[in-house]
Write a structure and sequence with these properties.
It is found in: Cell membrane. The protein has seven helices and no strands. The chain is mostly helical and 148 residues long. The protein has one domain (2-146). The longest helix has 23 residues, at 12-34.
């Protein structure tokens, strides 16, 4: 089981993709967890998720942790495949519950009811590749296997 989770090659592909995805996802997590970048912080986000959106508290909590702590773990290349799988599920959930109804395109001109889902296709694509190949060069995953 340990090998399936932490196995990775020594390429730069995993490194580039995990850094890219972590840089994109972390600010969203920081909004939700810390209130950075104009976010509402943990309490405000949990209130929105549970009271307005109607999510169970555990789902709201997991979303916040995945987007914040998960992005830091991804940046370090720790449990890359597990984080990538979680991100695929998360992005699919976000797309199906919030963005599908707004069409494909982002709301560049402010003339849609909300954002489309094109961003999440990229998110899922990057996470899918990470799920298949692992964290790559300089990942904590690689050092766990090499040193065990």
């Amino acid at each position: 089981m340990k090998t399936k989770i932490f196995n990775t090659d020594d390429s730069y592909i995993g490194l580039i993709l995990r850094i890219t995805l972590a840089i994109v996802v972390f600010p969203h997590g920081a909004q939700k967890l810390l209130g950075w970048f104009g976010g509402y912080g943990f309490s405000g986000t949990m209130g929105f998720f549970t009271e307005t959106v109607g999510l169970p508290w555990i789902i709201g909590f997991l979303v916040i942790i995945l987007e914040s702590i998960g992005a830091i773990a991804l940046l370090a290349g720790f449990a890359t495949r597990l984080i990538a799988l979680s991100y695929i599920v998360l992005a699919l959930g976000i797309t199906l519950t919030s963005h599908l109804k707004n069409g494909f395109f982002m709301n560049w001109y402010g003339n849609q009811a909300g954002e489309g889902f094109e961003f999440f296709i990229l998110w899922i694509g990057i996470a899918l590749i990470l799920l298949l190949i692992g964290g790559g060069k300089y990942s904590t995953d690689r050092s766990i296997l090499v040193n065990s």
